[in-house]
Design goal:
Blueprint lengths: L2 H17 L10 E11 L2 E3 L2 E4 L3 E10 L4 E3 L3 E9 L3 E10 L8 H5 L8 E12 L8 E10 L6 E10 L3 E3 L4 E14 L1 H8 L7 E12 L11 E8 L14 E14 L2
Antiparallel strand pairs: 1-4, 1-15, 2-3, 4-5, 5-6, 6-7, 7-8, 8-9, 9-10, 10-12, 11-12, 12-13, 13-14, 14-15
């Protein structure tokens, strides 16, 4: 990581120490409004590096109907528990782009070929063991995404998180849960050609990632990685496809820092 990246990461961490959003179980028609920033050491999607430079992006989160309906800038979705606090359904419409919001010229020149912007309908079942609230220990998520515009392909992902322990930051009274994180994804041939290149013309397991996922359950839903450190890579034939060559593995560090505007 360059000195420029280190400075950006420290800036976000400083902000994070003082402006973590409150939540996640608020009530009302407009139950919460959060503004903030997200730092990412690079831009990647499903194992492939799209942009080899850090990003500091604005974060806007508006939650409606007792936090069940959410607008997050690039997505709008619905979430609710369908069995006690053990199984939750999440459904979202997501905007997909490979273009960074604030690009640096040199990094942009060396990035992947520009893909057509598109939208996905993404659905996810989240299984919490033994439950989301009391004695949370682990989580298994199964997600399915269908492209709606660019290629009409499909993508399936299995993700698991296991809590190592939890602790409280002194003087801030903020609970932190470090988790071991793992995910593996499968895409059909249409999805893989769009993302990895024309010769990725088979349906296959196409990426995996693993690392650490830090949740702040008293401040934000466990769905959001407030701090994440992970390795990612492309698998199979997709790894050597045109867009993925020289961009098929790496490490990502990301932080999210937000401030709760509502509720007061």
């Amino acid at each position: 990581m360059t000195s420029k990246n280190v400075f950006a990461a420290l800036f976000v961490l400083f902000t994070f120490n003082f402006s973590i959003a409150k939540g996640p179980h608020n009530t009302g028609l407009i139950s919460s409004l959060n503004l903030g920033v997200r730092y990412s050491s690079l831009l990647q999607n499903r194992g492939i590096i799209l942009y080899k430079d850090f990003q500091i992006d604005p974060v806007v989160g508006v939650f409606f109907l007792d936090d069940k309906l959410e607008y997050l800038g690039d997505s709008i979705g619905y979430r609710d528990f369908i069995y006690s606090d053990k199984i939750r359904l999440r459904s979202r419409f997501v905007s997909i782009t490979d273009k960074p919001l604030f690009p640096a010229h040199e990094a942009l020149k060396n990035s992947s070929p520009s893909r057509k912007d598109t939208y996905e309908w993404a659905n996810q079942l989240e299984f919490f063991l033994p439950g989301y609230n009391e004695n949370y220990f682990s989580e298994i998520d199964i997600s399915y995404a269908k492209d709606l515009v660019a290629h009409k392909g499909q993508y399936v992902e299995l993700q698991s998180k296991t809590k190592l322990f939890d602790f409280v930051i002194p003087k801030m009274d903020t609970k932190i849960e470090p988790n071991i994180y793992f995910s593996v994804g499968w895409g059909d041939d249409r999805h893989n050609r769009y993302l990895y290149g024309p010769t990725a013309d088979v349906s296959e397991f196409n990426n995996l990632s693993y690392g650490f996922w830090f949740a702040f359950p008293d401040e934000a839903d466990r769905f959001y990685p407030i701090v994440q450190i992970k390795h990612f890579e492309v698998l199979g034939q997709s790894k050597d496809a045109e867009y993925a060559k020289n961009s098929n593995s790496g490490y990502l560090i990301s932080f999210i820092a937000t401030y709760g505007i509502l509720p007061f």
